[in-house]
Specification:
- By secondary structure, the protein is mainly α.
- The protein is built from 10 helices and 2 strands; from the N terminus they run αββααααααααα.
- A two-stranded antiparallel sheet has the order 1-2.
Length: 216
């Protein structure tokens, strides 16, 4: 297991409708479909656009929730993200994966929102589970005591991640929950691979310290 995966303990945190770290089936096929749909969207194909939205809206919403800690704004900001996808489709060039470009737009939206807000409103994992259970869907229904144990661990992780600086937080989410490699994260954050590794290194130590304090 990679060190930066270890920084939040087990990679069984559930986000964006799947278990964190789970390998998505046939990712190359998805990349090719995204490319094909974007080419169609660039020609004004609304059906292709709807397919892109349906495939990626869950991940986008989950990322916004975890970045801003505000469930109520996630829907609006996710819509803004896809509006920008539609508007920029004609100028888009496949220099990277579609999802890399998509999360670059997400980054711009949440960073801009963060700058506009003088005080970030905290949204607990309990509220997310109660109001948006689809963000924490699991393939199997575990025993109640297991749910409680995992729920407590997830709350600790969630709170620790929320305290990270903006760049570190997004690097952690992209790496651990979206499975992005260093190069993709660097593209999203508009920085170098070495800077990404440094961000993850600092985040790992901060999270370990925070989680150890919680357990003390």
């Amino acid at each position: 297991m990679d060190e930066d995966a270890e920084m939040i303990g087990k990679r069984d945190v559930i986000v964006a409708g799947r278990r964190a770290g789970e390998i998505v089936a046939e990712p190359q096929l998805h990349d090719a479909q995204d490319l094909m749909w974007m080419e169609q969207v660039a020609r004004g194909d609304e059906q292709a656009f709807r397919r892109l939205v349906e495939r990626h809206q869950h991940s986008v919403k989950a990322m916004v929730v975890r970045m801003l800690g505000d469930v109520h704004e996630a829907e609006d900001i996710a819509q803004q993200v896809f509006v920008r996808v539609w508007q920029a489709a004609a100028k888009w060039r496949p220099e990277a994966k579609f999802t890399t470009w998509l999360f670059t737009i997400v980054r711009n939206q949440v960073f801009n929102e963060g700058r506009r807000r003088s005080k970030r409103k905290e949204s607990s994992l309990d509220e997310r589970m109660e109001n948006h259970p689809e963000l924490l869907e699991a393939d199997e229904q575990p025993a109640p005591d297991e749910v409680m144990a995992k729920g407590e661990w997830h709350r600790k992780i969630d709170a620790a991640i929320a305290q990270l600086p903006e760049q570190q937080r997004m690097a952690v989410l992209l790496r651990t929950f979206e499975g992005k490699d260093y190069d993709e994260i660097a593209r999203v954050l508009d920085t170098s691979v070495s800077s990404v590794k440094s961000l993850l290194f600092r985040a790992r130590h901060s999270l370990r310290a925070s989680l150890c304090d919680e357990d003390a």
